[in-house]
Design a protein that fits this description.
- Pathway: Aromatic compound metabolism; melatonin biosynthesis; melatonin from serotonin: step 1/2.
- Pfam families: Dimerisation (PF08100), Methyltransf_2 (PF00891).
- By secondary structure, this protein is α/β, with parallel strands linked by helices.
- It folds into two domains: 10-107, Winged helix-like DNA-binding domain superfamily/Winged helix DNA-binding domain (Arc Repressor Mutant, subunit A); 120-360, Rossmann fold.
- The chain is built from 17 helices and eleven strands.
- The protein has helices at residues 10-24, 27-38, 41-47, 54-61, 68-80, 100-103, 117-123, 126-132, 135-140, 149-154, 158-164, 166-190, 210-218, 230-234, 270-283, 307-319, 330-339; strands at 51-53, 84-88, 94-98, 200-204, 223-228, 242-246, 258-262, 292-300, 328-329, 344-351, 354-360.
- Strands 4, 5, 6, 7, 8, 9, 10 and 11 form an eight-stranded mixed sheet that branches.
- The radius of gyration is 23 Å and the shape is globular.
- It starts with 9 loop residues before the first helix and ends with a strand.
- The structure holds S-adenosylmethionine.
- S-adenosylmethionine binds next to α12.
């Protein structure tokens, strides 16, 4: 033992070991959530009248007869995480019910208002998780300096894999549609003023058009365009009220009063964000004609003060390393806006973890 090293008390040593192992095993909660999503346990509970015993679940999910006790162990972690609730009858039998979290995991076709099960698969995804194993190499190896974490792990960018692997791309794009539908529902309930008085809007990197669809449903007079990569636009569901344009956001953004970018700039480093924002500035109307850029992004440190959202912003930031992206603090956003030639901005913390940022020319 080094001379200066202090001997830990027995209690400290014990607690330190417990805390360390607890951190090491945190990923099990994510994996259990993914398993419950793939097994469609929320649907099983819902279809069983909103409450289900272990045998009910086993019947619904097609469990192998030897695996009943294994399902019980999985459910124990999932109730600990607040994904399900459990009550034990007099005979000790467990009955599981949905929580507000697992209600978001009901499938399409099962009575529900919102679904986020594909988003679980976007986050808890073998290629996303595998990327995180390369952080050490990405941070230290010379050849990795100009690459994203994803490229170090997989030899291609996130966008290239989405383009070339239709299953992976399908899950990603479906997940973004789900996220956008939930986010837009909240934004339109809490802050629909952001869209008032606009004649035309381009959603840049708008994927399959879920944000634009929500905007035109609420404001049918707004002429909405979605710009995304050509292979994404080619597979977008048709919508007579939205014009889809295939292209590269670094090259050209169609003209409109307002440009909206949801979850785009957090995928890119500072200099690329300045380039994108300059393109946006060329595309929008003058400020006195209602011109602005609407960003839907995390502003680290702004939003709900509760532990879960605050922690989520920081976890999200490290997650975004995989595309060489970043979740920014206000001063980092401001630097981008000023360098791109914008004069002013307003942050509206509307989504707990994420904000609307209006940026004015
Ligand atoms: C994180 S997703 C966000 C999608 C959508 N805005 C949302 O929040 O649901 C990023 C989007 O940017 C698109 N994208 C990436 N590079 C692009 C480029 N160079 N030009 C246009 N779109 C691009 C992707 O295809 C993808 O749809």
């Amino acid at each position: 033992m080094a001379q200066n090293e202090q001997v830990m008390s027995t209690e400290d040593l014990l607690q330190a070991q417990i805390e360390l192992y607890h951190h090491c095993l945190a990923f099990i909660k994510s994996m259990a959530l993914r398993a419950a999503t793939d097994l469609r346990i929320p649907d099983a509970i819902h279809c069983n009248g909103g409450a289900a015993t272990l045998s009910d679940l086993a019947a619904h999910v097609g469990l192998h007869p030897t695996k009943l006790s294994h399902l019980r162990r999985l459910m124990r972690v999932l109730t600990l995480s607040g994904i399900f609730t459990v009550v034990h009858g007099r005979d000790g039998e467990a009955t599981y019910t949905l929580t507000r979290v697992s209600r978001l995991l009901l499938s399409d076709g099962v009575e529900r208002t919102h679904g986020l099960s594909q988003m679980v698969r976007v986050f808890v995804n073998p290629v996303a998780v595998a990327s995180q194993f390369s952080i050490h190499e990405w941070l230290t190896v010379e050849q990795a300096a100009a690459m994203s974490l994803f490229e170090v792990a997989h030899g291609c960018t996130r966008w290239e894999m989405i383009a070339n692997d239709s299953k992976d791309g399908g899950v990603f794009n479906a997940g973004m549609v789900e996220d956008s539908s939930v986010a837009m529902d909240i934004i339109l309930r809490k802050s629909s003023n952001v869209f008032r008085g606009i004649n035309s809007l381009v959603d840049v990197g708008g994927g399959y058009g879920a944000v634009a669809a929500a905007v035109v449903r609420a404001f049918p007079d707004i002429k909405c365009t979605v710009l995304d990569l050509p292979h994404i636009v080619a597979n977008a569901p048709s919508n007579n009220n939205i014009q889809f344009v295939g292209g590269d956001l670094f090259e050209f953004i169609p003209a409109a009063d307002v440009v909206l970018l949801k979850f785009i700039l957090h995928c890119w480093q500072h200099d690329d964000c300045v380039k994108i924002m300059r393109r946006c500035k060329e595309a929008i109307s003058a400020r006195d004609a209602g011109g602005k850029v609407i960003l839907i992004e995390v502003v680290v440190g702004i939003g709900s003060n509760e532990t879960v959202p605050k922690e989520m912003q920081l976890l999200f930031d490290v997650f975004m390393m995989y595309t060489d992206g970043i979740e920014r603090e206000e001063h980092e956003w401001k630097k981008i806006f000023l360098e791109a030639g914008f004069s002013d901005y307003k942050i509206i913390p509307v989504l707990g973890v994420r904000s609307i940022i209006e940026v004015y020319p």
